[in-house]
From TrEMBL:
Segments forming domain Acyl-CoA dehydrogenase/oxidase N-terminal: 6-118
Alphabetically ordered keywords of this record: FAD, Flavoprotein, Oxidoreductase
Originating organism: Belliella alkalica
Protein name: Acyl-CoA dehydrogenase
Xref: PANTHER family: ACYL-COA DEHYDROGENASE, ISOVALERYL-COA DEHYDROGENASE, MITOCHONDRIAL-RELATED
Length: 379
């Protein structure tokens, strides 16, 4: 195996690192406190090509590989996980889903502005009674001539009010269960589409999370992705890749917290010497570094498998499961290394600890990842 990154991949990583430090770091604590979306920063990320990294250049994308994408995701997530989740959804779920399964007309009309960062996209699967059990879709789409009538509610939607294009999963034939679920492209301006309140969250507070309500929304037939009944497969296949993005986010949160703890341990003195010279702290740092490196290898392997056109569902589930646990463990220890200072906002690690928790929940909880993994190893 070759563990060396190409010059192009390293250039992408370095560009993301520089952007995160120069554009995202300033004001990140205030954005978290105020639950304010980083609108200007996201616009700049689009201009730099971070919002459609893996999309073919003919659709305004960067034409990059998945490894480059996760390297960039890690660097952005070290500083601002709220920005990185918007980046992840746009890249992994919306752009990838449209490029992989959309028709040429849909790609021209919707993928191009999404990949260029001109507009943001949202992926609408979760519902009040359909979180981990994605088969229990209550949102319905009834065919009526040349359009569908969409009714229902979606919960926890990232980019909920800032998106312009929404990929919505809905039931078109309830009698067929999950085989009667379809996928649709819905425009923000659609009559009957209402954006609910913004969620007041524990972490990733700067991300734009809303409930969405659809009441007799007309969706043209040409905005259906694939055939009727393809929606559940579309959602599951898209989430397989999305888990790589969230695994990279978790890795970035962990590595960001570790870097802060490492630097602080060399500056803070106790009992006449830097705390990094005390074995208790050294062992914490050693565990953090080892677990982060193990998570990084899992994330990179899943990205590499995807780039090679190999089955990556099993690997992406493992990467997300492990990296999200490492994010929680490392951020907790980073707060501990900082002591009392770790408990206040100024030192960033308490925010990273709060941000880490969601990586064990969205795009498939850790329990769902274990189901995916166990099915793979027992088949």
């Amino acid at each position: 195996m070759n563990f060396e990154h190409t010059e192009e991949q390293l250039a992408v990583r370095d560009a993301a690192r520089e952007f995160a430090k120069s554009e995202l770091l300033e004001g990140v604590i205030e954005r978290d406190t105020e639950a304010r979306f980083p609108s200007e920063q996201m616009k700049k990320m689009g201009e730099l090509g971070f919002m459609g990294m893996m999309v073919d250049p003919k659709y305004n994308g960067g034409g990059m590989d998945t490894v480059s994408y996760v390297l960039a995701m890690e660097e952005i997530s070290k500083i601002d996980a709220s920005a990185s989740v918007a980046m992840s959804v746009n890249n992994s779920l919306v752009c990838w889903g449209l490029e992989k399964y959309g028709n040429e007309q849909q790609k021209e009309k919707y993928l191009k502005p999404l990949a260029s960062g001109e507009v943001l996209g949202a992926f609408c699967l979760s519902e009040p009674e359909a979180g981990s059990d994605a088969t229990s879709q209550k949102t319905s789409a009834e065919l009526n001539g040349d359009h569908y009538i969409l009714n229902g509610t979606k919960n926890w939607i990232t980019n909920g009010s800032t998106a312009s294009i929404y990929l919505v999963i809905a039931q078109t034939d309830a009698a067929k269960g999950h085989k009667g679920i379809s996928a649709f492209i819905v425009e923000k301006e659609s009559e009957g589409f209402v954006i609910g309140k913004k969620e007041d969250k524990l972490g990733i507070r700067g991300s734009d999370t809303h409930s969405l309500m659809f009441t007799d929304v007309k969706v043209p037939v040409e905005n259906r992705i694939g055939e009727e009944g393809f929606g559940f497969t579309f959602a599951m296949e898209t989430l397989n890749g999305g888990r790589i993005g969230i695994a990279a986010q978790a890795l970035g949160i962990a590595s960001g917290a570790y870097e802060l703890a490492l630097a602080y341990s060399k500056e803070r003195k106790a009992f006449g010497k830097p705390i990094s010279q005390h074995q208790a702290i050294q062992f914490k740092l050693a565990d953090m570094a080892t677990n982060i490196e193990a998570a990084r290898l899992l994330v990179l392997k899943s990205a590499w498998l995807k780039d090679q056109g190999k089955d990556y569902a099993h690997a992406s589930a493992m990467a997300k499961l492990y990296a999200s646990q490492v994010a929680m463990d490392v951020t907790i220890e980073a707060v501990q290394v900082h002591g009392g200072y770790g408990f206040v906002k100024e030192y960033h690690v308490e925010r990273l600890m709060r941000d880490a928790k969601i990586t064990q929940i969205y795009e498939g909880t850790s329990e769902i990842q274990k189901i995916v993994i166990s099915r793979s190893i027992l088949r």
